[in-house]
Amino acid sequence: MxxxxxxxxxxxxLASATPIAAQPAPLGAAPAIAPAASSPSSSPASSPxxxxxxxxxxxxxxxxxxxxxxxxxxxxxxxxxxxxxYGLSAHPFDAKFALGMFAxxxxxxxxxxxxxSVLGFYSGVENRTIIEQDLALDxxxxxxxxxxxxxxxxxxxxxxxxxxxSDNCTTRVAVMLQRTAGEDPGSRPVDAALTVRxxxxxxxxxxxxxxxxxxxxMGPTVDRQAGTGDPIFLPGQLMDWAxxxxxxxxxxxxxxxxxxxxxxxxxxxxxxxxxxxxxxxTAFAALLAAASLALTTLRGRLKPLAAAFDxxxxxxxxxxxxxxxxxxxxxxxxxxAWNLNLLWAGALPLVATILGGRRLPAKARSAAGALxxxxxxxxxxxxxxxxxxxxxxxxxxxxxxxxxxxxxxDRAGALGAAARLLRRRSRPx
Length: 429
Description:
Radius of gyration: 26 Å
Distance between the termini: 47 Å
Strand order of the largest sheet: 6-4-3-2-1-5-9
């Protein structure tokens, strides 16, 4: 359970430190970025501004797992080259910030910094691939987009309340670009076949433990298909939308419409790195279930070990349940609402463990048995039925629920009673 607790803590740190697509302020690293490809295009219109969409692919650090989006503006008249970033925290990442996050208040802001310095940090320090897409804007569109960016960056406008899937650094850029292209924000999903959960898991491919922990915290609301009205919230999806979009808002090109992106290039290609393969969540959960089965079968010989195992399981279930409830009821994140993992994750097993102490009255021990029985039934339901068709439950989570169901059923005395019944029936008359 130590590994599970470690990854739960890591997920909470990720959420409280830097949420989806939000990035730390650059540290002034040495520039490692190519200069602007050209002066502003004279076709389809002549404008002093060249505006490009910058996508920074995911990095190795937890906070960089989803990537990042921003807009680059080159002013041919002044020579200024600025990167507009909606992923800057308005406050230090400290305990106060974490408490605010659990209360549903995460203040982020937009800022404009020198492109060479900002992107130099992502390339030189974090070693993350950077892709730039030239936007085919006319003079009116470019001027309006730059004016909107500058308006958002004013002190009185720059701070906003960050929401993981509905209002983050990518959704803000996406809404602005969709309006510029003549589309209603969220009118055309990138891939209507993908659910929000599938989009998140796909972005985190190769990071199974992070997928496991985040899926523990997300409820059935993220299993809906991405339909109209849902903002583009992942940097990779925004990049794909821009590549397929048409300037003019038409679904298909016409004589008056043109591709929204005129050119795409890689400013920096991340250097390959090697990662040491470790025990994945499914393998860990299978070992947990095997250990639970062994302790249940050999309970007469391994009572001290079984007691320690059960206490660790009960404490871990409490941590998971508390995290879900914090995100749902305190922070009011819809993504955590009605999470069916609460059937096996919560305080009941720990309460039962406390009440089951030998020094407590018989009534307390009887209550403990009832609580264990309820906990076992709920965990068994998740292990067998998963999310009942309403919520996606990962195989690793179902194995964890199975491990807990075995131990709580044993603690409730149900397995012993069943074994005695079978022995009586097997005796000859």
